[in-house]
Amino acid sequence: MTTLPRRLSAALDRFNAAHPWDHNAHYHRWILRQLPRRFGSALDVGSDAGDLARLLATRAERVHGIDADPGITARARERAPAPGAAPVTFTVADALTGVPAGTYDVITCVATLHHLPFTDALTVLRGHLAPGGTLVFVGLHRARTAGDHLLGALAVPLNAAVGLVRSRGRTAPRPVAMTAPTRPATMTFREIAHGAREVLPGAVVRRRLFWRWTLVWHHPRTARARRRVSP
């Protein structure tokens, strides 16, 4: 978040505590819009309580979520998928070394990459994406440029407005979906975009509201397609 005067920052913290909402879950429906209407297998990396994995299960034939936190993974297993949705399994695993063998038609990752060696994580996940498959990531970056700070400042009142709207009609604040410990992002958006395009030629990387960035990459189906997207 962009730097704010101390009193304003404290006031916003109090407001957000009274009207909580999940910035990551805000992008779940956007993620679905980047994907085919139906696909075979999906992997959600850093699956937390499993909300996105269960959403993917409404379109996929099978979904697997991995998270390094055993407690959060146990919580995810307790919640059933939506009626008619595909089966969802959750495993305690490291994103670099514990991804289940095989390839997936869709791989998603939300607010997890800043916990990992960035290039290594992209390389590993690319290796698990099936030809013709889609990677969709949502992440955090360190604000550095004037554009970063301007977008952060714009997000402050919008953040409060969304929290107020979503809290109407509740008798108590709704718990947010993300429960994993977080740490500040260290990479700037420019570093993220450059690093991503080195590993994933043709990736579409964008700054987003609420202190997030997004990445979409489609695995080329053929060698000819790979030559076309190479830098």
Strand/helix succession: HHEHEHEEHEHHEEH
Extract low-pLDDT stretches: 171-178, 223-231
Q: List the strand order in the largest sheet.
A: 3-2-1-4-5-7-6
Structural class: alpha/beta
Task: Compute the number of strand runs.
Answer: 7
Mean pLDDT: 81
| DSSP helix fraction | 25-40%
Radius of gyration, CA atoms, in whole angstroms: 18 Å
Shape: globular
Strand proportion? 15-25%
Distance between the termini: 33 Å
Give the number of helices: 8
Reported for the largest beta sheet, the result is: 7 strands, mixed
Question: Which terms summarize this structure?
Answer:
8 helices; globular; 7 strands; 231 residues; alpha/beta
Brief account:
By secondary structure, the protein is of the alpha/beta class. The protein has helices at 6-18, 28-33, 51-56, 70-78, 118-127, 146-167, 189-199, 223-229; strands spanning 39-45, 60-67, 88-92, 104-110, 129-139, 204-208, 212-218. The protein contains 8 helices and 7 strands.
